[in-house]
Amino acid sequence: MIDLKEGVVEYLEIEGQKELKGAVRISGAKNAALPDMAAAILTDETVILENIPYLLDVSTMKNLLEHIGFRIEEKENSVLSFRLERVASLEAPYELVSKMRASILVLGPLLTRFGYAKVALPGGCSIGTRPVDLHLKALKKMGAKIKVEHGYIYAEAPRGLKGSYIHFSKKSVTGTENIMMAAVLAEGETIIDNAAREPEVVDLANMLKKMGADIKGEGTDTIVIKGVKRLKGTDHRIIPDRIEAGTFAVISALFDGNIIIEEYPYEYLGYVHALLEKMGVNVVKISQNQVVIKRSGRLKPVDIQTKEYPYFPTDLQAQFMTFLSVIEGSSKITENIFENRFMHVPELRRLGADITVSGRDAFIKGVKSLSGAQVKATDLRASAAMVIAGLIARGKTRIYDIYHLDRGYENLDSKLRLLGASVKRGFEEINS
Ligand code: UD1
Q1: Exposed/middle/buried for 299, CB within 10 Å: 0-12, 13-18, 19+?
Q2: What is the pLDDT of residues 156-181, one digit of tens each?
Q3: pTM of the model
Q4: Ligand 1: does its nearest atom lie under 6 Å from the Cβ of 95?
Q5: Does the N-terminal peptide bond of residue 158 adopt cis geometry, omega within 30 degrees of 0?
Q6: Is 379 noted as a catalytic residue in this protein?
Q7: Are 86 and 56 in contact (CB under 8 A)?
Q8: Which of 182, 289, 392, 411 could disulfide-pair with 112, CB 3.0 to 4.6 Å?
Q9: Is the CB of 127 under 6 A from ligand 1?
């Protein structure tokens, strides 16, 4: 991850079809690290987070917290301490929010602790419009005065937020997290109905409870939070990244099981394992947190629908599409969460995949093999799909726009190199 001078682009070049073997360790979850970092706003004591992945999105959240006034220190590798010593700003500026939509996670904590927050309105992003209306509606229900003007959300609750009954009309991960963080310091009881059940929501609840919060029902549809006066610091270990784990499960299945995956969060991937089994792939536990992936026979096509946890995660959709593109027969993927999350399809087609899209459905006819080409990483998870494609394709695949990869995968290229893949970064001058 380096800053590039203008006119220079970084790419990843993969020479495909190398044998992969060895062990790989799954990093801490990006989607748990970001809310857990934002939760440090809720206390004036020190919060220590372990197993922090070094990612572009984590640096963006770090910059945002430093902008607010945090002192952040690296204690040791993957361990950071956070302390809000003196508030410098209650604002999340556009430069940071535009880099990462999850910056919206500071809204709930800032508002509940300080009675004010100004957060740039996240724009649309490549995978869809992704509004934050549900976050704002819930905070209004809790008594916040909110106006959206000049591209910013201005939220005020000078006398604090009030516990309330919040029904999410649609399950939202960061929405649930934002409201949970707002509710822990609100007056009285908050009930979040139709809450997101993702393991990262549970991880945040566990951390908040260690800080002294009163939360029940996390991991179910209904979370009940009783507000407390203040929270204390804590030391918390971030859960492993189930999306990175699922990505390596796909890679390992394609190379038929010579890879040991360590720190594998087996219990978070039950639905994905059942689906892999249908495809002829078994995830075998060889110790408490190590697995190997074994094929049970010929690989089979399958139909997949993305859906909120505990079902199939949208964040693994692109990686499974690459997988299915080389399995003989017809498969279908329906994307139910984001309306525009098939941008990787034209890129996979450049590599020889046979995929057509109609609305929210992608129809995949398995081809014998893919052939290396130049492609673009169109979003974070699509970038992983391109890497997988490059690993199995004949010849060289060059992937551009790989900053997407660095946003969410810790050292994916070096992890793959350690397994024997031929993956290198390079730079190219562009004439604009
Ligand atoms: C989180 C994850 C992201 C994952 C997504 C879905 C983090 C940091 N990011 O994103 O990796 O792809 O969950 O699993 O955890 N929606 C609204 N109004 C809102 C909020 C959401 O209409 O106020 C819609 C979204 O457009 C989308 C759906 O609800 O269609 C789910 O989005 P949501 O769960 O909120 O995604 P994020 O929390 O942004």
Answers
A1: buried
A2: 999 999 999 999 999 999 999 999 99
A3: 0.96
A4: no
A5: no
A6: no
A7: no
A8: 182
A9: no
